[in-house]
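Below is a filled-in request sheet from our internal design queue. Each sheet records the structural input a requester submitted and the sequence that came back. We keep these sheets so that new team members can see what a complete request looks like end to end.

REQUESTER: design group, bay 2
PRIORITY: normal
MODE: inverse folding
CHAIN LENGTH: 363
BACKBONE (tokenized):
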């Protein structure tokens, strides 16, 4: 009888002790622990540093930092509509101005993948207005990297095509016409298809936008401001143009775009390399000297980053992606004090970029 009661007890003890041993022998994931600690540290650094910029400049807008899908920092401050005192939230839709150019560039590159355009082809093959002698040798690639010599359409070229850099909205609006001609669809339809493909649920163009939560744009400051009229429809006007600066987006959607684009989910990896490759050099009036690819800017030095600024009246913006850590830094605003000059409007953006660059270099 003793044996019958003792044997099951011994089995139970043996089984229990084996379980404890197995648990004790499970390896500790030191990398996961280290990564978690680094993430916590980065969150604290970003909060301390970027909060100080918000406070110093009374920044009216949205800022977020993501490491892949992990949110390291987010702050919304001020109003999307000063008249109604509507506060900026995660859902606020901003005009992103020339950040739009990378979307237009990707539309061209998608047409290239479909065999409908060649970057070395002349734009005059697709646009009748380019068949005049002054413009007949401009290539699609030269429009993409602003080396065409074009300034405003109809004027003389600033230099021989391919021999310099001159930032041209008209050049990107010409790319929009090429997209329309080879696709057989309006530029808005092409752009909306691309935004949907990327998973950008709240984004649109200034001429197609029918949603809510749009951040009206203002000239002035938080105490004294004037609304810019006819936004966002005016982005479709000739002096701006949807392909050059007419996309509307949110913090979350731009993070989705960065992750999708740079992971090769939108264009093929070999196409992405063309997009990212430095082909010209730009002297930016605020950010300084940098390389320029196809609708995207890049740091010549460490840390490696791809970025683009944007400005239309009342809407200074900056979108940065650090490929080595898959980090996005997105800075959107809807007010600018033009009396102080464009450099003053971008000072908070520049300070935040400097912070991000420093933190990326110590990773």
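RETURNED SEQUENCE:
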């Amino acid at each position: 009888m003793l044996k019958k009661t003792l044997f099951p007890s011994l089995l139970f003890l043996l089984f229990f002790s084996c379980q404890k041993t197995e648990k004790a022998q499970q390896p500790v994931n030191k990398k996961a622990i280290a990564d978690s600690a680094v993430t916590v540290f980065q969150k604290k650094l970003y909060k301390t540093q970027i909060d100080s910029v918000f406070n110093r400049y009374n920044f009216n807008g949205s800022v977020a930092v993501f490491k892949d899908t992990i949110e390291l920092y987010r702050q919304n401050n001020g109003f999307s509509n000063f008249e109604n005192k509507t506060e900026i939230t995660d859902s606020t839709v901003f005009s992103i101005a020339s950040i739009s150019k990378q979307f237009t560039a990707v539309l061209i590159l998608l047409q290239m993948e479909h065999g409908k355009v060649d970057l070395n082809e002349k734009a005059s093959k697709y646009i009748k207005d380019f068949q005049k002698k002054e413009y007949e040798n401009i290539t699609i690639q030269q429009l993409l990297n602003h080396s065409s010599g074009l300034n405003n359409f109809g004027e003389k070229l600033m230099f021989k095509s391919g021999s310099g850099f001159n930032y041209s909205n008209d050049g990107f609006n010409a790319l929009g016409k090429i997209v329309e001609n080879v696709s057989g669809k309006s530029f808005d339809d092409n752009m909306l298809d691309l935004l949907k493909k990327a998973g950008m649920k709240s984004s649109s163009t200034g001429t197609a936008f029918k949603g809510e939560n749009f951040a009206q744009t203002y000239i002035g400051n938080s105490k004294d401001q004037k609304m810019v009229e006819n936004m966002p429809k005016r982005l479709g006007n000739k002096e701006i143009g949807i392909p050059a600066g007419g996309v509307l987006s949110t913090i979350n959607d731009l993070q989705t775009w960065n992750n999708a684009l740079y992971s090769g989910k939108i264009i093929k990896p070999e196409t992405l390399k063309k997009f990212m490759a430095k082909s010209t050099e730009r002297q930016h009036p605020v950010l300084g000297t940098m390389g320029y690819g196809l609708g995207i800017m890049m740091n010549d030095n460490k840390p490696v980053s791809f970025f683009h600024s944007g400005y239309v009246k009342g809407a200074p913006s900056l979108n940065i992606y650090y490929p080595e850590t898959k980090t996005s830094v997105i800075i959107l605003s809807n007010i600018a004090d033009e009396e102080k000059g464009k450099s003053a409007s971008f000072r908070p953006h520049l300070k935040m970029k400097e912070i991000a660059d420093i933190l990326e270099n110590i990773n």
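SHEET NOTES:
- The longest helix spans residues 30-57.
- Residues 273 and 293 are 10 Å apart (CA to CA).
FILED BY: M.R.
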